[in-house]
Task: structure prediction
Amino acid sequence: MNTLQGSCHCGNIEFTLLTQQSEHTLAPRRCSCSMCRRHGSSWISDPEARLELRYREKSRMSVYQFGHRTSRWIVCAECGVLTVAICQIEGRLRAVARSQAMIGHVFSAQEVATDFDGESVKERVARRARTWIGSVTISPAFDLDFGSGASE
Result:
């Protein structure tokens, strides 16, 4: 099992990605949405992996959503670093980790450009169910307020 670490700049938000894959086999995906373009973000995911998200001060953790509002973007309100994106599908949290928030990890696989603009909400959720990190825990527990429409 490989343990990959990440965090925001000030350390308020940290995450651990536990995966059988390595920095050589995980290929960062560069999303073309406006949020990812503005943050210069690329994402790591492995449906067989586990993501453990931790935060120190809830008041310094910002949860952002836009567009279809099917995911929650976890941004540190103190230092401004975007760390992970989380969605809920059929009651189960799934996530992607921002490769630029990883600490001391260099991904050697070539980055893959993606464009999901033409996806319907149903197609987007189905893709995430297949490709996003399959197990997510948040500590301390934090309600991301997906409400009844969370599994859209």
Residues 28 and 44 are 5 Å apart (CA to CA). Residues 121-131 form the longest helix (11 residues).
